[in-house]
Structures are given as C-alpha cells and as structure tokens.
Specification:
single chain, flagellum, 2 domains, two-stranded antiparallel sheet, 186 residues, 4-stranded antiparallel β-sheet, 18% strand
Length: 186
C-alpha cells in the first residue's frame, strides 16, 4: 500500500512545469544566482580574513612605524649621527670556508657605502666588482671564526674590508655594511 504513494508512473509532466536544469527565479537562471551567492560568500570570507589579520598584527605591535622603533647603530653613538651614503649592493652573497681546523662555512652579503655625489666611485665599484668579491672572500677565508664572530670583531672586519677596498680603488669608499653575516658549522 505504501508503495503506491510513491509510484512514479502516476506522475505526469505538464507543459507548465519547468525542466529540472532550467529552473528560473525571476528573470535570472538559477545557475547565475548560485554563482552570485558563492561569489558573495568567498568575498565575505576574504574580507573577514583580512580584518582578522590586520587586527592581529596591530595587536602584536607589528603596525608600529619603522622610524619610531629604529635603534641607532653603534657608529651613530660615536659620531653623533651617521653620514648619508649611497650603497653599492650588487656584490651579492660571498661564500667560502674559514681557516679553522673544523672548517666553517661563511655567507656574507657586503654593501659598500660611498658619497652620493660621487658618480665616479659608483662607476669604479661596478668595474671592480669581481676584484672586491675576491678580496672579501680571501679576507674571510684567511681568518678563523674567533677573529670574525662577535660585535667588536664585526666592527674590525668592516674597517679592515673598507681599507682593503680602498687599496684596490682610486676613489675612496666610506663604509662597509653587511645585510647577511653568517657562519655555519658542518
């Protein structure tokens, strides 16, 4: 008896009923409505995620301005302010090993500071880039890790490299800085 209630043979399709895949709501097809609905959900999720990330970063202190949290360099304490320099940064990473018994790999990225008005210095740095890379590699390879690690040694390394680069060049460089200064034990 109960099977007779759900017998599909009794149903007849009328012409006034739309087909299953072509359902229309108003003047837009159902597919367009579904696409718009999911687009709104995705955009809402993205906005929610961005808001949460911004609030979290600000709460953790990452939204502070860089000039308010900047610590002065050691050289700024000594001179009362750093000289404004242009920086030659095309040397890239210099890698090699120290002269220790247990060799340690060094990876340094030197940047060379020169006076902004000195275009001749920039041109010479470009022409002598390979010589400067070689001088940096030889300097680090001829020293032990004890002579290279630490703040005081790093300051001495910067001064020694500046003097070495000035021996190579006709025009004088003012400073050497490192964006990467690592020693890895293998």
């Amino acid at each position: 008896m109960s099977d007779d209630l759900f017998d599909p043979e009794d149903e007849s399709g009328g012409e006034d009923k739309p087909a299953a895949g072509k359902k229309k709501i108003g003047f837009l097809p159902a597919v367009v409505i579904d696409i718009l609905k999911w687009s709104a959900i995705v955009i809402g999720a993205i906005v929610f995620i961005v808001v949460v990330v911004v609030i979290t970063v600000r709460a953790m202190g990452g939204g502070a301005r860089a000039d308010t949290t900047r610590l002065p360099l050691h050289s700024e304490y000594e001179r009362g302010g750093a000289e404004m320099l242009d920086w030659f940064s095309q040397i890239g990473d210099v890698r090699g090993t120290t002269r220790d018994e247990v060799r340690r790999t060094f990876i340094v990225t030197p940047h060379i500071g020169y006076r902004p008005e000195s275009d001749a210095t920039l041109q010479e740095l470009i022409r002598r880039e390979i010589q400067i890379r070689e001088a940096v590699a030889i300097y680090f390879s001829s020293r032990s890790i004890r002579e290279l690690e630490g703040v005081e040694n790093r300051l001495r390394v910067k001064q020694d490299l500046r003097e070495e680069i000035n021996r190579i060049m006709v025009n004088r460089v003012r400073d050497v800085a490192f964006s990467r200064y690592e020693f890895i034990e293998f």
